[in-house]
Amino acid sequence: MKKHKVRVRLKAKIERSKKRKNLLIKITAVIVLFSVLSFAVNKISKFLLTSPIFNVKSIEVKGIGITDKSAILGYLDFEGKNIFLLKLKSRELQLKEKFPAVKDVKISKRLPNKITAEIEERLPLAEIKVSNKRVGIDENLKLFVLPESYRVLPKITDSLTAENKTACLKFLKNVSDLPIHKEISGITAVSPDDIVFFIGDNCKVCIGLAQNVESKISYLEKVIADLETKGKKAQYINMRDFSDENKEIVVKAK
Fold this sequence. Notes:
Blueprint: H1 2-50, E1 58-62, H2 69-75, H3 88-98, E2 102-110, E3 114-121, E4 126-130, E5 133-137, E6 143-145, E7 155-156, H4 162-174, E8 184-191, E9 194-199, E10 203-208, H5 213-229, E11 234-238, E12 250-253
Parallel strand pairs: 1-3, 7-8, 10-11
Antiparallel strand pairs: 2-3, 4-5, 5-6, 8-9, 9-10, 11-12
């Protein structure tokens, strides 16, 4: 009986010894593995952060038509810098603050050494003159300088209230896809529901409230075309009381 107990205790002791030994081997293996990984990570990190392969060599700017490209590139002074060390989010915010025509921007990395800036510019609906410079204005009343080569936009009265300007810009946006949009040389408003614009040879059109715009413009084009067939030009057109049911319109020819 005593011999049996001794054998059991000895066997248990051997098992505990094996478990401790196996645990020690596993711990040692894990430590070695982490050491190897740490060494590899340090080597890779050093390579990525110091190798000239990852120094920016080219910067591409997309989506601009108003903002000066050279000015954008001058602000994106990343060339020669390590691509992994660049802080792009803060530069995106700075670009929008620096260039008023930039509505949104996304700067991304293209490994190994290229930066791409995708820019969304504001859409100018009208323009004003400020110190002999063309200044565009978008639907949110944001102002930004336009290049002289930019297409001619309707001139909006600068002294209008914000409410009246917004009404004018909303109207221009609604007709931006219609042929008459290119004919509009200027626009103003007595009130948000009394919009006036000028077309052709300085013909004054009182469109009134910017509702049923397509219907009003379609009828306006027919009136102008009818005058032209008679060899006449319109000087003044009042559509304030026009509606689909009551096509009341006042026309004064030259």
